[in-house]
Structure formats: C-alpha cells, structure tokens
Amino acid sequence: MKLRYILFGLVMILSLSACEKEIVLTDEHRTDRLTINAIVNPDTVVYAYVTEANEIDYFNLINMRADYYHYNKISADKKYMYLVKELSAQALRNAKVELVVNDRNVYTMVFDSIGVTYNSEYVPKFGDVIKIVAESNSNPLSDGSVIGLDRVEANTQLPTTTPRLYVMGTELKIKAREYYKAVEASGDTVEITDMFGSDTVMRINLKIVDPVDEKNYYRLIVKNVGKINFLPNQAYPTTMSVDYFGSEDPIFYDSDLIKPYGFLPAYFSNVFSDELINGKEYEFTVETRMRANSVITPYVILELQHLSPDLYYYLKDIEIFRISDFDLYTNPIQIWSNVNGGWGVFGAMTYDTHIIPFER
User: Fold this and answer.
1) Over the Cα atoms of the chain, what is R_g?
2) In the predicted model, what is the mean pLDDT of residues 49-71?
C-alpha cells in the first residue's frame, strides 16, 4: 500500500525551525509518479486513465464511476464532461502503455483524446490475470510543460464467477421525505432532503448466495431512476436518479464511518465483505424512494458487484477519506494502491443486475 498524502506540514515545520537539518527523502516520498486508474470487467474492452499524480480529493473518477450502473458503458465525454476537462490537463498523451493478459498476450493501449483514456481491444474473461505496464519518457501537458516519469505496473484478477443476487419480494409504502443534517465545506451544518423524491418508497427483500471456501468482496448498488419534464415543451425528459438507499441490516455496518456523508448515515456502507455471510444464503431488506412526477414508470436498478480485493480496499479507504476533516492537524490518510512504483488503483469486478419497476 502506498502513502497517498503529501505532508504539507513538513514545509511549515522546517520554515519555523531555528537550526538547519538535512532531510533525506527516499523514493517512497516522491510525488512525481505516474498514476493508473482502471476497473475491468468481462463486458467491455480494457481502458485506463494514465495521468501525472493528482490529489484524490480533487479528482476521484474511479469512485464516481463505480457509483453508477454499468459505469464502464457510460463514455466519459457524455457523463463526466465536467471532470474530463480537468483530467485532460493531467493526461499523459505520449505514454507507452501495454496490457499483459495471463503473462502471455501483450496488447498496446492507444490514447483516446475524447475519453482521455488509453484503450485496448481486449475484452477480459472470467478469471483473467491482467497487468497494465506504463512508462513516460517525454510527455507534453496542456500547459506546454514536459514531464518524464518512471515505469509503473499494476495487476488485478477478474473474479471467476458472477455474484448471485435474488429479488425475493417488494412492497410499496407511503413514507414522508426525511431531512438530514449535512456539513458543508465551510463547516456549516445544513438540512438537506431528497427534493426530487416522492412520498412512496419501495422495500425490497433480497438474497445473496455467497460461494463457499473463498473470501469475497461486494458492493450493492441501488439506483432509483425517473424522467421529468422541467419545461412545458421539453423535447426529451431529464433523467433523475439517486444511488443511495437505506437498510438496517448488519452487513452494511462499518464502525470506521463515524460521520454521515450526504444522505448516508454514519456507520453505513454499501461496500462489504462476506464475513457475516461466509458461504451461505443471506436475506436482507433495502429501501429506496421513488422519483416524483416522472413521465415514465420509475424503476430501480439493483446491482451486486463482486469486487477484486484491491478495489474493495480502495473503496473502503475512500469512504473514510470523504468524511475526514482536511486540515494540517489531522493524520494523513493512507489510500490503498496496487500500482507498483506509482499511484492509483487497478481493480476488477463482475456483477449481477436486476431492474424492478415502481408498480403495485
């Protein structure tokens, strides 16, 4: 695991010191490293973001893409235009990037200026062991500067099976919208609510069948979707969706999440291991709120993602990071990375998806 944080406090301490002391920084402290961020699955070709180092609170596309249903089928130029502009400034356009599959087949990854990614033509298979190798000798950035970075590599293995999620039953209930306290960047506490949510919620009974004799890591996505016309003559309805849900089941309990985040209460996480399931069939209930004034029948997308260990550890660290106080007096947070010689994460997942309409 690599240390992600740059210790800004070190500069302050040295500037205030009355005596001179030579500080020797090892290679482990270098920040000018190449960064790889990628998630692979058996449904699409492999692509990766290869950039210069960046602060994780400034740019965290991997976590955002994993929050969306079929994240890897949504092109960055359409769904994440507001991030692509910032990413373009950091992208290394002339890096040498290769994909190695099962230590045998090597594929050259080509830079795509629209999605700002390095793409291959290979579609992974269940159980594949995949490695990305990248190096950058001379890469022009958007500001005209040139950067050279050392060779880095990252490995991941796709799960050998698709996770098994079953919908056991649903129930619609009337439930007034709730108000939550949230802390803004300024430190002020405000009340927020699901302003596009209706007074109808769906309780969904689910079952996971966990494989025996192996350690498994999961993420449950519950995406609530509707379409709304904001203008009288609007040609195409605006899609409104949310990815958060509620549940009191212990598999979603995380003792490290001591603060709420947005609409998520403290101690709640949709990223979990099979510690409580342990090779058994496990039933639980989740709750999600219907979109209001939808011009189509609103629906829920359920997706159980089977995560590679590195992606699981990375997402758990991100959950802690996003509720932290970003000041010089807090301890640095270590964000999990499996990129040898650099930063970022290279993960894999498979998933089982179900779509349920909001109908009685």
Assistant:
1) 22
2) 53
